[in-house]
Structures are given as C-alpha cells and as structure tokens.
Design goal:
The protein has 355 residues and is an alpha+beta fold. The chain contains 14 helices and 14 strands. The chain has a six-stranded antiparallel beta sheet. The longest helix has 14 residues. The radius of gyration is 21 Å and the shape is globular. The termini are far apart.
Length: 355
C-alpha cells in the first residue's frame, strides 16, 4: 500500500463506536485507489484501526453526515478533516430538496431510478401529509393567485414524499431532470441553494410531520442497507408497485444497533444468521415502508410471495422472479425484509411508524 501522504486520500473527522458503546473522535482516512481506510485517534494521534481494505464501501459513501458500519463499528462522519478534502467534496455535495406530490407517486419507481441513474444520492426521505401553511412555505413567492391556489391544492390533496438529495450542482441538475423527464407530474424542486437549505431545514428539522401509516390491513417492508447502497431501491419499488401494492408510509432511517436488536429479537436464538442480520441492518440507511394492497387483496401475503424465500440462493433456484432472487446476496444480505407472520404485521408497522 502507498504511504500516508497518498494524494488520493480523503480525510474526515468522525465519531467511532468503541467496544464499551461510547464514541471516540477519530480521523478517518479513505484511500480512493484501493478502497482502504485507516482510523487515527484524534486526541492521542495513535492508530485506532490500521489501514485495511473495505470492499463494500466506495468514495460515494464518504461525505459529511454519512453513517457507516466498518468492521462492526458504527462510524458517523461529522466534518472534513482537511482543506483538500473539503475543496474536493464540497462542490460535489450540494444539497437540494424535492417534493414528490401525490399525483406524481404513480411514477415513484421511475423517478427514483432516474434520480440514481443521474448520480444523485438520496440522503433523507419521508412520506408526509402537508397542510396549506406547509405548501405556502415552498410556493409562497408565486404572485399569480390562481396559480398559487392550484399549487397549494396539488400539495395538500394527498400524501407527498419529501427528499433531501445530494450531488454536484444538485439544485440546477434536479430541476432539469424533473422538467425534462417528468414534465406532466407535480414535483417541486428547490429553485436555488438558499431555498434548498430553507426547505431541508423546514421539512426535516423544524417540523415533525405525523406518520401517514394507516395500520389496518397493511404490512412492513424494509429495503436493507446493502440494497439501498447499491442503488437497487428503484427496481425494488417497481417490483412492489407493479404487483397491486401501494406505499402508505415511508421514511429513510439509519438504525442504531440497539434498535436493530430490538426489532430482530424474534430471530435471536432461532435464525443462525442473527449475528449477521443485526450488523447489516445497522450498517447504513434503510428504506422503511408500510405496504397496503391496491385493491381488496392481502398485502401481507402478496408482499411475502413477491419477496420470495429468505435465502436468495434458494430463491434463485425455486422462484427466480422474486425480489430476493434478483437482488439478494445471502441470508443476511437478502435485499428486503418483509413481515413473516400475518399476526406480526401491526406490531412491526407500529415499531417504525407508531407514535
């Protein structure tokens, strides 16, 4: 491996989980050319983790605000570690806000796929039911009263999905993507950088929107971190939505290890893969969804059959058209969680979307 002064090295300040469950401030070094990392104790300047290759991570995973699982430790990147890293990544990490209004959600899978195809990163996401005052926050500068009324109506007529999106020149590029690819669908994108900052703060920090979950005749789906990280979410959504299922609640979260242990406790001592399932579920963002049937069908049964056998290897042999057969790797990295037993649907949905 190259020396410490490798010109391709990125440096960050991060909080690393210690063996005792506490957090230690470290310098996190990422070497782009060979996907290796090292960690240095910020206070003592001694190695916290000697340089080692991490094949499951890429340069796109390293940015301020990112949370990673590296060799069983949760790592939270909180700042740039030097001016060179900041200069290189800051332009690439411009933020913008997107609101997919109710009538655009019929194209949710296509929009999601296009966002990822154009090299944007979705770093925050939530389904929310907005009020007129929320609509005014983003459309209040419209001077035409009739047009403003139409914009407010389109914003509040059903649930919407808000997204925080990151990329180089994110504001302008996202406006172009939506106007060119989805011109007939009601999608709001922040018009400039200052508006993007205001929108993100309002919708993801200042306001606490109630859950849109309906809790009746629904089931739970989780796009696991490895599938989300590898850009498969749009394709998984397509599988779900094309099988007469609807998303009635959604949020993107990074679960801590304790929450993962609580959620997966029914597998403890039962599934041999439990010790791999917890680290995987806490390794990065998961897309959590409440799923309902588009008609009078059984959402739980439909989704469970669509996901396929728990083991992707078995799914590939017996049911190759299922989600786990297409996107899973092994029993822990099997792309998607779905509620196993119908009697557990209510409790699993409540775990993530209850008050």
């Amino acid at each position: 491996m190259q020396a410490i002064n490798d010109p391709e090295k990125l440096i960050f300040v991060a909080l690393a989980e210690t063996d005792g469950g506490l957090e230690k401030r470290i310098f996190l070094h990422f070497y782009c050319h060979d996907n290796s990392i090292e960690m240095i104790d910020e206070k003592t300047r001694k190695p916290f983790l000697r340089r080692i290759r991490v094949d499951h991570l890429t340069k796109k995973d390293f940015y301020v605000g990112s949370r990673l699982l590296i060799f069983g430790r949760n790592i939270n990147i909180i700042d740039y570690g030097d001016s060179k890293t900041k200069k290189e990544l800051s332009p690439r990490m411009e933020r913008t806000f997107v609101l997919l209004k109710w009538k655009s959600l019929t194209k949710l899978d296509a929009i999601w796929c296009e966002i990822l195809r154009e090299d944007f990163q979705i770093v925050n996401c939530q389904m929310m039911k907005l009020k007129p005052e929320d609509a005014v926050k983003i459309h209040g500068n419209e001077v035409d009263s009739t047009k403003l009324s139409d914009l407010i109506t389109s914003t509040i007529e059903g649930a919407s999905i808000g997204m925080e999106i990151v990329s180089r020149n994110a504001v302008q590029r996202m406006q172009e993507l939506c106007s060119e690819n989805f011109p007939d669908f009601p999608i709001y994108t922040s018009p400039d950088i200052s508006s993007a900052s205001r929108d993100i703060d309002y919708f993801f920090c200042a306001q606490k929107f109630p859950s849109t979950a309906v809790f009746t005749n629904t089931t739970l789906a989780i796009v696991k971190p490895h599938a989300f990280r590898s850009g498969k979410t749009g394709e998984i959504l397509k599988e779900i939505l094309s099988n007469d299922l609807r998303v009635t609640a959604m949020k993107l979260i990074h679960m801590g290890r304790k929450n993962c242990e609580d959620f997966l406790q029914v597998y403890r001592g039962v599934a041999p893969e439990y010790n791999q399932m917890v680290p995987e579920l806490s390794s990065g963002p998961s897309l959590i969804m409440e799923i309902s049937s588009g008609t009078s069908g059984d959402a739980h049964d439909t989704l469970r059959r669509l996901c396929g056998p728990f083991d992707p290897e078995i799914a590939q042999k017996l049911r190759p058209q299922t989600i786990r057969a297409k996107f899973g790797c092994d029993k822990a990295l099997n792309a998607i969680h779905c509620t196993d037993l119908p009697e557990d649907c209510a409790s699993e949905v409540d775990f993530f979307f209850g008050n």
